[in-house]
């Protein structure tokens, strides 16, 4: 028997004896030796912790892929709640492995392949799911009780302008006057008569110490020069309603704690009103058009590139550029000193898209390949939906038979009947909720798939439509969104290039420009 061992830890038990990844793998290895299994692979999730309720577990997905290829016969894990803490997930994943010809065995428990064994396993899974939910509810209840008792919950990180103060078992916030003065100044500047923008406030604050300057620590490293404020830093402070003297837990208006106020309620409301107005009237909202706006990243630091307009030297109009935001507003150093002409980048990308649609036969192949690739990548989701639906229907049939038997046989033990009925109902609703989530995910994917099938149905017509589109038409934006076109800008041997990608393919394009640097 070819075996694969599987281990997983939650974030709260990775240090407990026998529950860490190494301890689990050792137990599984010893179990396989006793059973004379040949271990072909040992799979362990992230040692920082992975939730058993999550479906997106890389190593578990790898085990399923290996099972589909027939690479092993049995999956060995320590115990039931390590494999899945939810009844529905445990049932579905086990059914998937069984359909693929792989048995799941547990080191610390042994379940017979009989009605009694399956019932025992399901009861254990229900208990594990109940314990997980109970722990979560206990933690939430404890935090809510602390807040109701007058304590704030900031997890050791007080908002800028405050310090944590503990007394008589309560945690409160007190004003740090040095930081509070900075907060007041930012609000005063923003709501002043000249109505500055966020970036203008950030410029006026240059030289004033920031949060990173005053609170340097290993978890909050200094990444900017002293007194260098970012637009995001200013905006973040303006959004904090706690400065009005009311701290709120989890945005619940019923869970608040009074704290010392740094600004008045009127000042905060006026700042929010100004922010909404500035966002609505911002010049960049509709003044210039960027085809690849918010779809480009910097190859040096990975930051998003944004559009920037610069007046031409002759004073006749402006020139648009894509430039890395790390140099202006993000706390990241970047060596990308060049800016990229937006019209040249957009033109190169659009020419590539037009080329994709210029050959109907090639377009049809691209669409077909895309659909096949998507089908392969989503096959696990489709199988999971089918397995879950089958298990739900089987469970519903069992529940109906149980009710029929109870009505036909009045001598049936009522206590046993109710115990069995509760177990079946709990299993049914767990599967029903899981099936709903899986079907919603599948529906979203199928909507996208139908769109590409529509393209592939008549590629010649669609190709003529694309080739007939002008560079200035807004229809291009819709196509860019539909194809999910993205790109990475970089410089290679002094030449500007863009690595562009979409659902139909990818390519490295040269940008035809010789003087892109903003001086």
Brief summary of the model shown:
By secondary structure, the chain is of the alpha/beta class. Helices cover 49% and strands 15% of the residues.
Chart the SSEs and their pairings.
Blueprint: E1 2-7, H1 21-34, E2 38-44, H2 58-68, E3 74-77, H3 80-83, H4 87-99, E4 103-106, H5 115-148, E5 162-167, E6 170-175, H6 177-190, H7 198-204, H8 211-214, H9 231-239, E7 246-248, E8 256-258, H10 265-281, E9 296-298, E10 305-311, E11 318-324, E12 340-341, H11 342-356, H12 360-377, H13 379-408, H14 414-457, H15 459-467, H16 475-483, E13 486-492, E14 495-502, E15 505-510
Parallel strand pairs: 1-2, 1-3, 3-4, 9-13
Antiparallel strand pairs: 5-6, 7-8, 10-11, 11-12, 13-14, 14-15
Helix pairs in contact: 4-13, 4-14, 7-9, 12-14, 12-15, 13-14
């Amino acid at each position: 028997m070819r075996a694969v061992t599987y281990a997983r830890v939650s974030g709260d038990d990775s240090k407990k004896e026998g529950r860490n990844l190494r301890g689990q793998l050792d137990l599984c290895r010893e179990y396989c030796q006793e059973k004379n299994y040949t271990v072909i692979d040992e799979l362990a999730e992230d040692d920082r912790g992975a939730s058993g309720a999550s479906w997106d577990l890389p190593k578990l997905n790898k085990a399923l892929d290996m099972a589909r290829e027939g690479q092993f016969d049995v999956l060995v894990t320590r115990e039931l709640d390590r494999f899945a803490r939810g009844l529905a997930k445990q049932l579905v994943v086990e059914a998937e492995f069984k359909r693929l010809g792989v048995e799941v065995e547990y080191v610390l428990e042994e379940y017979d392949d009989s009605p009694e064994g399956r019932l025992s396993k399901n009861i254990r899974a229900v208990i594990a799911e109940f314990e997980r939910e109970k722990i979560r509810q206990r933690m939430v209840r404890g935090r809510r009780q602390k807040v109701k008792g007058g304590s704030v919950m900031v997890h050791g990180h007080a908002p800028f302008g405050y310090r944590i103060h503990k007394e008589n078992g309560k945690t409160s916030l007190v004003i740090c006057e040095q930081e509070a003065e900075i907060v007041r100044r930012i609000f005063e500047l923003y709501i002043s008569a000249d109505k500055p923008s966020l970036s203008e406030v950030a410029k006026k604050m240059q030289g004033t110490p920031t949060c990173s300057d005053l609170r340097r620590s290993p978890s909050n490293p200094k990444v900017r020069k002293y007194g260098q404020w970012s637009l995001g830093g200013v905006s973040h402070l303006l959004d904090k309603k706690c400065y009005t003297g009311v701290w709120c837990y989890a945005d619940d208006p019923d869970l608040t704690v009074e704290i010392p106020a740094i600004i008045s309620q009127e000042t905060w409301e006026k700042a929010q009103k100004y922010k909404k107005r500035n966002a609505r009237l911002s010049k960049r909202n509709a003044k210039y058009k960027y085809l690849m706006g918010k779809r480009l990243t910097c190859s040096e630091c990975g930051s998003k590139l944004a559009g920037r307009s610069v007046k031409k030297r002759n004073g006749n109009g402006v020139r648009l550029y894509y430039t890395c935001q790390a140099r202006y507003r993000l706390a990241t150093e970047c060596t990308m000193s060049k800016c990229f002409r937006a019209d040249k980048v957009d033109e190169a990308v659009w020419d590539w898209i037009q080329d994709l649609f210029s050959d109907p036969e090639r377009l049809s192949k691209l669409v077909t390949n895309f659909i096949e690739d998507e089908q392969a990548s989503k096959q696990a989701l489709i199988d999971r939906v089918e397995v879950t639906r089958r298990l739900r229907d089987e469970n519903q049939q069992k529940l109906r038979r149980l009710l029929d038997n109870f009505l036909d046989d009045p001598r049936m033990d009522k206590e046993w009947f109710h115990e069995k009925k509760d177990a079946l109902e709990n299993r049914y609703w767990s599967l029903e909720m899981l099936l709903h989530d899986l079907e919603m995910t599948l529906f979203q994917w199928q909507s996208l798939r139908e769109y590409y099938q529509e393209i592939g149905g008549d590629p010649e017509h669609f190709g003529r439509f694309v080739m007939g589109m002008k560079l200035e038409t807004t229809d291009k934006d819709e196509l860019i969104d539909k194809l999910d076109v993205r790109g990475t800008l970089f410089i290679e041997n002094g030449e500007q290039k863009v690595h562009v990608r979409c659902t139909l393919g990818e390519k490295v394009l040269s940008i035809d420009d010789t003087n892109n640097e903003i001086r």
